[in-house]
Amino acid sequence: MTLPLRSLTPLIGFLLLLLAPSLAIAGGALSFQIRFEALLVVSLLCIAACVLGGYSFAELGLGAPRGARAWLICGALTCLLLAGVVVEAQFLSHSTPEPNWVAFAPFYVLVSSPCQEIVCRSIPKLIADRLQMSGRHYVLFSSAVFSLMHGAYGDPVLLANTFLAGVAWSTAYLFTRNVWPLTASHAAVGSFAFWIGLA
């Protein structure tokens, strides 16, 4: 199936907007120190575009999770991903300084993780649905978006890790269609990775 260029416009615009901070940081036009602020601006622009486009908060995955199934799926994924982080830590050592947890933790848990889940899980699903992508193609698209969003770090291992975590979380999103359990998983796994120095 060949899609006209006009139907690809939201996809192209989304990718350009999402990759702009990483490309700007790599090119020296934006400081690495403000990467979280750049994520927030990009996330707000993406969410605003979706709301102006007529999508509801429920379609963005922001409704209340239905039942315990979503939490159980994401709890199991969280355990698997945490185990992977522990195993990886045995083989790789990073000299990443530990963040200032008093300032970092609230922002990461309450702002960064939800924004990343909306931008990397629910918005790609809206685009995938519009382009009539299969579930498999959505998972690859979502995972690539999540990985490339971390390109500013310049770390190939982080790109691989975020791609693999993206596969797990986007697969879960296919079943849950809700970002809150994924946000909890993302916050737990990411915080643990920062704590042991892998992120």
Automatic annotation (TrEMBL):
InterPro entries listed in its UniProt record: Rce1/LyrA-like_dom (IPR003675)
Signal peptide range in chain numbering: none
GO molecular function, one term: endopeptidase activity
Residues annotated as domain CAAX prenyl protease 2/Lysostaphin resistance protein A-like: 100-189
Transmembrane segments: 36-58, 70-89, 139-159, 179-198
Gene Ontology BP, a term: proteolysis
One Pfam family linked to the record: Rce1-like
UniProt keywords, alphabetically: Hydrolase, Membrane, Metalloprotease, Protease, Transmembrane, Transmembrane helix
Name assigned to this protein: CPBP family intramembrane metalloprotease
Organism: Methylocystis hirsuta
UniProt lineage: Bacteria, Pseudomonadati, Pseudomonadota, Alphaproteobacteria, Hyphomicrobiales
